[in-house]
């Protein structure tokens, strides 16, 4: 996916790219194992104007079925018999590099329903400053929206042909997603990391870096929540009670920092952790200093030994010269 986007960026284009997702769907989880890009164009000023080559999708998918062994025929004594083998990778959805939802996503998703009954849409955030998992997965659903009874009494009709005072609208339902590697991929990555492992980086430094990355991700999510609440308060977005319930549950889990005993416990725990960090840094500095002194002493002893050998050689040379002079005099 990122390679598809990089090829477009190399041509000085910053538009989003669209592609097809291939993998397996076992009913409970969906495994995305492969993908391919498709020709896509859209007018950034008009969300209703876009082009997607569905004929290209059909051609590419047929080639993938040949590679994955979708079907073949065998010959026996009675003649040709067709035999079908389930493909390892099937078309399960589509992706685009948003980085957010677009107004035309629902129409594109309806187009993919020609090939898949319930396609999954994955938005890939290709920005380099992305924190956390750069993917968001969605399914298209029909949401029932209550309509004011007063409106029906005045108009005398119901939208979408419903007689129960409700209307439906299409929307996207967010589903959790993770990025994992298969066993063969993990072995290859570990083999590469074994050669580029930095011996100067300690486990503590790695843990601190991971915690900083987690905090940046949390800050990004809190910023999104703040932006949503501001837009709801100003009337720019409708109130979603389900989101409000989840926010209330999250706020209820926060500790009461006004409690003196709780604050004292937090302070004591923090001080204990900082003491361990301080002692570890002190020991690391002492060990490094000891290694430096030991190295200096080793170099000094080596220099003394080399100096003693030079003196012995000079004395031997002097004695040899004296003996030669005595022989010449005789």
Describe the structure.
The protein is of the alpha+beta class. The protein has three domains: 2-74 and 84-180, 3-Layer(aba) Sandwich (Cytidine Deaminase, domain 2); 199-254; 260-320. The chain contains eight helices and ten strands. A six-stranded mixed β-sheet has the order 2-1-7-8-9-10. It has a two-stranded antiparallel sheet with strand order 3-4. The longest helix is centred in the last third of the chain and has 70 residues, at 260-329.
Keyword list:
8 helices; alpha+beta; elongated; 21% strand; two-stranded antiparallel ribbon; Cytidine Deaminase, domain 2
What's the short version?
The protein has 330 residues and is an alpha+beta fold. It has eight helices and ten strands.
Chain-wise SSE layout:
Layout: H1 2-9, E1 18-25, E2 30-38, E3 40-42, E4 50-52, H2 54-68, E5 71-76, E6 79-84, E7 90-96, H3 105-112, E8 120-124, E9 135-146, H4 149-155, E10 166-175, H5 183-196, H6 203-234, H7 241-252, H8 260-329
Q: Class by helix and strand content?
A: alpha+beta
Total number of distinct structural domains: 3
Helices and strands, in N-to-C order? HEEEEHEEEHEEHEHHHH
Q: For the largest sheet, list the strands in their spatial order.
A: 2-1-7-8-9-10
CATH architecture of the largest domain: 3-Layer(aba) Sandwich
Give the assembly state of these chains: single chain
Beta content: 15-25%
Radius of gyration: 35 Å
